[in-house]
Amino acid sequence: MxxxxxYFNIIPFDLPAEEKTFYFSLEETKKSNRLHRTLFPNDIETxxxxxxxxxxxxxxxxxxxxxxxxTALSIDFKTENQDLLRKYYNRQIRYYFRKEKEQxxxxxxxxxxxxxxxxxxLSTKQITVYHKFSLKIQFQEVxxxxxxxxxxxxxxxxxxxxxxxxIRTVAPANFKxxxxxxELYFYEELTQHEHPEYRKTYPVLNFDLGKALNLxxxxxxxxxxxxxxxxxxxxxxxxxxNKEEFKQYIPLHESGFLQVADHxxxxxxxxxxxxxxxKPNKGRTPKKEFPYKRAFLPCPHNNVxxxxxxxxxxxxxxxxxxxxxxxxLGHYKGLTQYAGILFHPDTAMNICFKERNNPLPEIQNFFNxxxxxxxxxKYLAIYVTPFTREETRRQEVRxxxxxxxxxxxxxxxxxxxxxxxxxxxNDGFKWSLTNMSVAILAKLGGVPWQLVTxxxxxxxxxxxxxxxxxxxxxxxxAFCFDNTGHFNEFAYFLRHETDVMAGSIAVKVxxxxxxxxxxxxxxxxxxxxxxxxxxxxxxxxALAQLQLQNPIPVFVVHVNKxxxxxxxxxxxxxxxxxxxxxxxxxxxxxxxYLLFNNSRYPNETxxxxxxxxxxxxxSINCNMEKHLENAQTIREIIEQVYQFSRMYFKSLAxxxxxxxxxxxxxxxxxxxxxxxxxxxxxSINSLWFL
Length: 690
What we know:
Blueprint: E1 6-8, E2 10-12, E3 20-25, E4 33-36, E5 58-63, E6 71-75, H1 82-100, E7 104-107, E8 113-118, E9 127-139, E10 146-159, H2 163-166, E11 177-180, E12 183-186, E13 201-203, H3 207-212, H4 225-241, H5 244-247, E14 265-267, E15 275-276, E16 282-283, H6 286-293, E17 304-311, H7 315-327, H8 335-339, E18 343-345, E19 351-353, H9 360-369, E20 378-384, H10 389-394, H11 397-408, E21 413-417, H12 419-422, H13 429-443, E22 450-451, E23 458-467, E24 474-482, E25 487-495, H14 498-515, E26 521-529, H15 533-544, E27 554-561, E28 569-571, E29 584-589, E30 592-595, E31 616-622, H16 631-644, H17 659-670
Parallel strand pairs: 17-18, 17-19, 17-20, 20-21, 23-26, 26-27
Antiparallel strand pairs: 1-28, 2-10, 3-5, 3-6, 4-5, 7-8, 8-9, 9-10, 11-12, 11-13, 14-29, 15-16, 15-22, 23-24, 24-25, 27-31, 29-30, 30-31
Helix pairs in contact: 14-15
């Protein structure tokens, strides 16, 4: 691997050399801090004898501020309860930013601080934009010192019209978070204030409020996130942290951000990048190599009938798309030449509907009058959705899913496309055509490419657990693969109780293991999104207690995105772009790793069009803990996650998440809108959802 100079977004600091005096009381007073018994200092019994045995749940402290009625206790920071020290340092950070720098500080449930800094250049008279930064205290995670982890959480926007004025035209349900006197509150909290002061309270914009105000949705700009992240962190560090007044509270090291130690850095085997195309062809970049190395397994159907579903106003778009699929556009030479799919345009099957907002009755009426029972024909529907991509994402997903469901129940493969995409300027649609063609091939039962690896008796299951944005419904799905990346089948569950969901997952895992034999190990890639620790606990407990008929090592790999409040690393040797090489992984302590999946390889040209995905964070556990000590096994687990990120057939672009969690994510977006919870038998082992 070529040389890299990696840095964390972490700044080490020093603990006090001398003991400090903290003050404690059994009684709560004004401006004291409550401490749960898990935060009690080590020597608390010396000032409150018997307090640990009498089950006292809380005590109170002013930390290093002497106050009448509070008892002094010497604190040795080098050996003290780290949870107590974390609370102390979080209090110091909060005081510095609120009192000395007059910044808005949001305190999380566990005391972690998020600082909101006004972005003057991005703000307007109507909207104030804030940059958000999190500061997290941790101890000896990646160094021999306590550490301050500084992360960038993106932007929030404040609408500069008061709640009192807006409520005349905007329903209160649209208000979620608000700012009053430079403090952040939930809107519901204001009723508990003695003086709510609605005229001095301003709402933080959210999707529903923006829609109610008819504000344009902020454009999602594709950019180098590493560059943006590093620039804003450097500015924040220079302006707020690398100052003597801050170092009085937390004595940061003068060296600044921490360089990653060599012994923490490793790389996947270079062979992990290899993919198998049509025999004997191998490669590593589908975007470049698929067009001439061809599919690993070609389309199994030689009698494909293609038809279109479209709104009457989109007839020109449909005709344009038909021409592109037949004759090509730019370097894309058509569906047959690019993906090897021979097809017949079946114009008699085309469905042209008139009702834009609800085409379902017209489409259903056509299906009711048309038979699809010829087993020799494989139908492929191209649905030209009458909605823009933004409309589909925001509000019309229900119709999109219902059309997909209608086709699925008739065993019709389908591909959706937005008119605006087809009409992209400068032949830009050719890139979408290549992605579409690969997805269509996979939906028809072909295999665009496969991992180059020796098949083992190993079962890999991807599980996703999600809180759906339209309600309190929980959704989980389990996807079964072998170690070559070959997809076997999937199941999904809709549940209101996570313990029921957890039991369903455990049963499904057992069924998979029984159906596909007794593997040498079971690997579960587990991904959770928008669920609290309390909500997900039953699922994690069920996986931990999984009992198979023949006991084998069961590895549970928690896969997490790192874009928000978490640790990243950047390569200073690639100045200006900063992204580490693909396949780099970093040990960040306690069986946790950062894994970089991207398209930057040594000695190869990098295309900015491939993007700059952030790393994912892996946390590896095993029911037989001794296996966690086997470095080779851990390497194989990490390399498998890395390889599975290359098996995504919805796009030719490199993904940072493995398909074991990407596919559950796709199902989570569409399954809650389906009319019927049960899926046809033929759908559980196909990739119809791409």
